[in-house]
Amino acid sequence: MAVATPPYASDALAEGTVDAVVIGGGAAGLNGALILARSRRSVVVIDSGSPRNAPAEAVHGLIALDGTPPSEILRRGREQVRQYGGRVVFGEVVSAESAAPSADGDLRFTVTLADGRHLTARRILVATGLTDVLPEVPGLAEHWGHSVVHCPYCHGWEVRDEPIGILATGPASIGHAFLFRQLTEDLTYFTHGTDLDEDSRARFAARGIRVIDTPVTEVVNDEGGALAGVRLADGQVVARRVVAVAAQLQARTQGLEGLGLPVQDLPNMGRGFASGMAGTTEVPGVWVAGNATDLVAQVGASAAAGALAGADINRMLATADTDAALQGGSPR
Q: Considering the entire predicted model, what is its pTM?
C-alpha cells in the first residue's frame, strides 16, 4: 500500500559533495537528518512522498505527539531539518552506488533520481521504510489504515469494543488475535486457509474467540461505504466493523540494488535490510534505520533509530575528517 502525502515545496538539490544523503523522508530519515544537520553536516533528504502511515488519521503511542496526524509530524520534521541547514528534496531514487573515493581515500557514493538529477555523498542513510502486502481480498485495501488495521498499539484504542475480525495470514495471526481480544469481547478469527492447531483452538475457545474456517471472499460495505462485514465462500456475510490483518512486511529496496545491502527474511513477518548497532551495515559508508530494517518499529522507535544512525554517521565522518587533516588535506 502506498499513499502520497500532501505536496510541499522541494529544496534545490545540493551541488558538489555532501556529507550525507538520507534516502527516505519519514520519521527515521528526518530524525537522522536532524542529528546530522545539528552537527553542521551538509545533509540532503530524498523523499518520495509516500510514507507507510499516510492512510492513518493519527499517530498513536508516541508521547507528547499522540493523536497527531502523520502528515503534520513530517511537516514539522522537514521544517526542523531545514532550520539547521539541511535540505529536503522531493524525488525518487532510482540508483545508488559506490563511486571513486576522494583523493585522500574517503568514501564516495552517487545517488541518481528518477528525473535524471544526481548528487555525490560521503555517506548514505537508507530510511526507505516498508510496504504492507495485504491478502488479495476484494475490498480490503480500500479500508486500509481505517477499518482495516494491523497494529493493536497504533489503532487498538480507536477500535475498542467494536466487532473485530482477524483475517489470518499465517502463524503470526494467532498471537495477533490475543492482542485484539484485549480490546473487544466480540472477536472472530477467520483462518482463511491457514492452519490452526487444536491447542490454539482451545485457547481461543477459552477466551471466547469464535473461529470460522470457511474462506473469506470479499469485504462488504454498508450503504454509506463503511466496512460492514466479510463475505464467506458459502455466501454467508459475517458482520464486522473492523478487520485486523497481519500483513507481510517488505522493505522498500527499489533503486538500492547497486549498494549491495544484505537483506534478511524474518519468519512469518517479511523481509528487511540486515543491520547492526546504530544501523550499521556490511557495506562501509551505508547505514539503515527505521522500518527498512526493523519491520515492527512504530514511529517513535523509527525516529530513535534514525537519531542513533545519524550520530554514528557523524562520528565516522569526524574520524575521516581527522584522517584527511593528518594527510594535509581538507578536513572535509
A: 0.94
CA dist 312 and 300 (Å) reads 19
With cut-offs at 50, 70 and 90, classify the pLDDT of residue 1. Answer: low
d(CA 51, CA 66): 18
Strand ranges for the chain from DSSP E: 17-23, 43-47, 87-90, 93-99, 108-113, 118-126, 130-133, 148-149, 164-167, 187-190, 210-212, 216-221, 227-232, 237-239, 242-245, 248-251, 263-266, 270-273, 286-288
Q: How far apart are CA 162 and CA 46, in angstroms?
A: 40
**pLDDT tens profile 280-311:** 999 999 999 999 999 999 999 999 999 999 99
Residue 267's CB is within 10 A of a number of other CB atoms, namely 8
Residue 264 has pLDDT above 90, yes or no: yes
* CA 210-216-221 angle, 5° bins: 95
